[in-house]
Amino acid sequence: MFVPPEGSILHADLDAFYASVEQRDDPRLRGRPVIVGAGVVLAASYEAKAYGVRTAMPGGQARRLCPHAVVVPPRMSVYAQASKAVFRVFEQTTPLVEGLSIDEAFLDVGGLLRVAGPPREIAVRLRRAVAEHVGLPITVGVARTKFLAKVASAVAKPDGLLVVPPDGELAFLHPLPVERLWGVGQVTARKLRERRGRRTRQDADDRDARPVVGSARARSGVRRRSAPGVRVGRRRRSIGAQRALGRRRREHDELSAILAGLVDRVARRLRAGHRVCRTVTLRLRFDDFSRATRSHTLVEPTAHTEIILAAARGLLVAAAPMIAHDGLTLIGVALSNLDSDDAIQLALPFDQHGTAALDVAVDAVRDRFGTAAVRRAALLRHGEGLVVPLMPD
Ligand SMILES: [Mg+2]
Asked: What is the rounded distance in angstroms from the CA atom of residue 118 to the CA atom of residue 390?
């Protein structure tokens, strides 16, 4: 089999994006710790990160860690412009660009050897072009798969370039902390450490750790021989619902009930589209217009309301300190990492003991009689209207 000398997937990721834009536009901020967002930290410059300041941290905690940091309000429209300019550079590099967020993308440069040279040279030029045209530092990881390219860029940050050669993949991964693995969130990492004493990729690679690192991504992403392609213009990437809360302070029980209503909606849409999800994201917005998100990636893909709800509730509990500090004005939930439901084995539809049967029954009732026909008991306590008590909360 022909083995290319170098992987041809680039993961390009701007460094401390919002904070770098602020430092670019105000020379006085360069070399100083900068925090964007007062309520919740939306971005922290590397000078602030050195003090332990992290994205999505409550502002008060960040200021205690780094009292001399300059705190600036976000300028979203400026960031959006910068993002557009960076994506223009991506698109001039290759037509195969898969955007992951406002400041990162996968680029497949596999077919460009003759016209543009090997991937490493393309990555060098890409970094230079972003610096020259947009004035921002960007880190690029180059590897044979998207998974490895993303891990490489995380390791190379800030303002770096790291190429993982095909014959050096395991040597690159083994010493890394498990958290570095894309798809291993805080929960999985904690499980690996506490229950199994695993700390590194090598530990996690042991066969007996696999039931814990159950995600297909964490399991096979590394070992996979064929590179999963960069996907351009694929089906929708997430299903979400949100609810504005106004300014009144909400207690945790009330937020939990609202969240349950949102999960009911998105899970139903998920099943109607014959999809399953792996990642559940909780979105929060505060009265200073700052935002925060918390995500959890499930071990197995699912379309079950109760499993999604359990993940969403876990995220809400984890976000509780942040919510206590600030006025929460919007709560939302999004399901991503979507796949079609024929990709997994579903316990359908007459498994009387599983939650699948309940989901199917509730969907059928709602299809026939409308969404309001069946409601959670928890929602009743908060004036969301009547109905049949469904599940214990
Ligand atoms: Mg970034």
From this structure: 59
In tens digits, the chain (393 residues) has pLDDT values of: 555 567 899 999 999 999 999 999 999 999 999 999 988 899 999 999 999 999 888 999 999 999 999 999 999 999 999 999 999 999 999 989 998 888 999 999 988 888 888 999 999 999 999 999 999 999 999 999 998 999 999 999 999 999 999 888 888 888 887 666 655 556 666 666 665 555 555 544 444 434 444 444 444 444 433 345 676 655 667 888 888 887 778 888 889 999 999 999 999 888 888 888 999 999 988 877 778 888 988 888 888 888 899 899 989 988 888 887 668 888 999 999 888 877 554 433 334 445 666 777 777 777 766 666 666 665 555 544 333 333 333
CA angle (17 as vertex; 12, 20 as ends), nearest 5? 120
CA of residue 137 to ligand 1 center, whole Å: 10
Q: How far is the CA of 102 from the centre of ligand 1 (A)?
A: 8
Q: Which of 47, 104, 179, 384 is catalytic?
A: 104
Active-site annotation holds for 194: no
Residue with tokens 């991964």: 173
The alpha carbon of 15 and the centre of ligand 1 are apart by a number of angstroms equal to: 5
- Angstrom distance (rounded) from CA 231 to CA 96: 8
Going from the Cα of 271 to the center of ligand 1, the distance in angstroms, rounded, reads 32
Q: Which two tokens stand for residue 118?
A: 């090997």
Residues sharing a CB contact under 8 Å with residue 324, sequence separation 6 or more, in sequence order: none
pTM over 0.70: no
Task: Tell me which residue of 31, 32, 52 sits closest to 41, measured CA to CA.
Answer: 52
